[in-house]
Amino acid sequence: EKSGYDHYMLKEIHEQPRALRQTISGRIDADAGTVDIEVDLPAEYIDSIEEIQIVACGTSNYAGRYAAELLESVVDVRTTVEVASEYEFDGGRDPWRTLVVAVTQSGETADTLSAIRRAKRAGARTLAVTNTLGSTIVRETDDSVFIRAGPEIGVAATKTFASQVATLTLLAVHVGRARGSLSYGWARELLESVRKLPNAVQGVLDREDRVREVAREYADSDAFFFVGRKLGHPVALEGALKLKEISYDHAEGFAAGELKHGPLALVTEDTPVLALLTDGSRPTETLNNVKEVQARGAPVIGAATADGDGEAAADSTYLDVELPVPVTGALEPLVANVYWQLFAYHVADEKGRPIDRPRNLAKSVTVE
Ligand code: M6R
Predict the structure, then answer these.
(1) Of all atoms in ligand 1, which is nearest to the CA of residue 112?
(2) CA-CA distance, 328 to 192, in Å (whole number)?
(3) C-alpha 58: how far from its chain's center?
(4) Pairing state of beta strands 28-29 and 34-35?
(5) What is the full per-residue pLDDT of the chain (368 aa) written as tens digits?
(6) 223 - beta bridge partners?
(7) Where does the signal peptide begin and end (predicted)?
(8) Is 105 in the pocket of ligand 1 (CB under 6 A)?
(9) What is the dihedral of CA 68, 71, 77, 82, to 10 degrees?
(10) Which of 59, 67, 118, 154 is the most buried (most CB within 10 A)?
């Protein structure tokens, strides 16, 4: 079951290439620039959508934020993302023209189910993006798309985040093509990149030894900050969530530009800053923020793309973890996220934490 790994979490991190292959299997026609995600959204309905509202919690919420950036840029549909427990259907919206998407690994998260019930009461169409066949969310939504990541046992969500973002990227291409807002060329490029994801993630996994070394070196730090822009922002939030859940260390994620509006006061030589510097995350601008924290003595651990805009940026940081297999900028932050998963794991392992069952947390949160 753990196939030789010490924890399910590490096994699941390493399963990502396989999970991603399952996620995309049979769903992509890159030559045609089309996607088949087995969802029954009629073309006229897709055309009529004025707003997409994503509701989700925790890691699934960050996958939703990633997708929202993509949907707004490649599909040109206004997309909002809300923490499910905060969601209300806004009476100013036309429910017929609003698609409410619940992203949930388990399909049983009470907050997400209750958000979907609110959307349904208002008359909106609902779609579930989930890993779990036969789950409550599947029964309660109009349509479902499965992320097909396989069972995830570790409380910390890892492979399901990657498969959620990949599935939502396919949904974005599907909706964009159906509305005519996404060009054939861009659709092809995105789909080619989705196809390369498993190998790109494997390339990161092959560098685990280096990440483990750095994680051990910094395991005793006072706090950790994760920063990124655009698609790197949800990845920064996700990196911090993963680390705090399993290591019990204080970790926070920010939009890189926000550092100077407050958090910088906490930055010292004992607070490593993990920076997303890949394409798709405005690496050149983020480098300015990297310099601000370096000037205060903070060690910076950067992830950038080999030969990408951020490479020079990464060269000036402590750990230059390149993405060995490039994908399009829209998916590079997702690949880089695997570095932060490994980092969180090895910090927690160094501290001897019960990684698969962190205190106070449950795999599936069935109370509101
Ligand atoms: O099953 P769901 O995707 O709805 O779960 C949502 C969150 O409870 C979940 O992502 C949680 O934040 C994880 N423990 C994160 O690693």
Answers:
(1) 4
(2) 8
(3) 10
(4) antiparallel
(5) 889 999 999 999 999 999 999 999 999 998 999 999 999 899 999 999 999 999 999 999 999 999 999 988 888 899 999 999 999 998 889 999 999 999 999 999 999 999 999 999 999 999 999 999 999 999 999 999 999 999 999 999 999 999 999 999 999 999 999 999 999 999 999 999 999 999 999 989 998 998 999 999 999 998 999 999 999 999 999 999 999 999 999 999 999 999 999 999 999 999 999 999 888 889 889 989 998 999 999 999 988 876 666 565 555 555 556 666 667 778 999 999 999 999 999 999 999 999 999 999 989 898 89
(6) none
(7) none
(8) yes
(9) -10
(10) 67
Let me know: does 152 contact 105? Beta carbons within 8 Å.
yes
Ligand 1 centroid distance, CA of 222 (Å): 26
Atom of ligand 1 nearest to the CA of 130: 3
**The model's pTM:** 0.96
CA–CA dist 115, 64 (Å, integer): 15
ipTM: 0.99
Which residue in 120, 242, 260, 363 is the catalytic one? 363
- Would you say 9 and 161 are in contact if contact means Cβ atoms under 8 Å apart? no
Q: Relative to the CA of 361, which ligand 1 atom is closest?
A: 14
Length of the chain: 368
Q: Which residue has the CA at smallest separation from atom 9 of ligand 1? A: 58
Q: What DSSP character marks residue 131?
A: S
Q: Is 242 a catalytic residue?
A: no
- Beta-carbon contacts of 179 under 8 Å, excluding residues fewer than 6 positions away, are 46, 47, 49, 75, 76, 77
DSSP 8-state secondary structure symbol assigned to residue 35? E
Residues in a beta bridge with 28: 35
- Strand-pairing partners, residue 83, are 56
Half-sphere exposure of 32 (CA within 13 A, CB side): 9
Tell me how far apart the alpha carbons of residues 281 and 302 are, in angstroms, rounded to a whole number.
12
What separation in Å is there between the alpha carbon of 53 and the centre of ligand 1?
18
